[in-house]
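Lecture notes, part 5. Sequence design as translation. It can be helpful to think of inverse folding as translation between two languages: the language of shapes and the language of residues. The source text, in structure tokens, appears below.
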């Protein structure tokens, strides 16, 4: 007989908005409908929980789809950028080769004279020696192409080649790891 007896009621605080609902639940309990009420509440909660799960699952699927679309778009962008960089690299190589070969000026032209009518007396600056990197920059070539020219030409040919590229028409000779100007 004690197993069927319901436990004594406990006093709990509820928000003011819920007071009428709790009173109504207490009346249903006093009328002996507690078991039916609990089953109804459990079914309601189960429906509420499952609908929340469905909504959340649907939203997560939509987010996953959007992320997939973004990932695909970014991969395509990366491929396009890589392709463009590759094309630019090839164009730069062509330009560098053209400049190194002297096809587009690249130091072959003589320095221009000033159109300014008054010429100032300039003191001559004596150029002593240049490191390979500095001479390459002066001649408008890469350090590697400077080495290639030096190694593939005779000393006279290299002096002539460098004289044609030098802004001051100086020829250059390689000695002891440095380049020295050649007097005419």
């Amino acid at each position: 007989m004690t197993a069927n007896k319901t436990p004594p009621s406990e006093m709990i605080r509820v928000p003011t908005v819920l007071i009428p609902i709790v009173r109504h639940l207490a009346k249903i309990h006093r009328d002996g409908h507690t078991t039916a009420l609990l089953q109804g509440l459990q079914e309601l909660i189960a429906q509420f929980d499952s609908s929340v799960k469905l909504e959340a699952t649907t939203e997560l699927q939509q987010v996953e789809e959007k992320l997939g679309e973004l990932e695909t778009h970014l991969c395509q962008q990366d491929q396009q950028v890589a392709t463009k960089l590759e094309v630019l690299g090839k164009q730069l190589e062509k330009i560098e080769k053209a400049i190194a070969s002297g096809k587009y000026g690249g130091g072959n032209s003589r320095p221009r004279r000033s159109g300014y009518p008054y010429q100032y007396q300039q003191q001559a600056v004596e150029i002593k020696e240049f490191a390979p990197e500095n001479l390459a920059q002066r001649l408008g070539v890469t350090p590697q192409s400077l080495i290639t020219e030096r190694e593939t030409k005779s000393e006279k040919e290299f002096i002539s080649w460098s004289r044609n590229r030098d802004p001051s028409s100086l020829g250059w000779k390689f000695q002891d790891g440095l380049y020295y100007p050649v007097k005419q």
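The translated text above is only one of many valid answers, since several sequences can fold into similar shapes. Residues 34-101 form the longest helix (68 residues).
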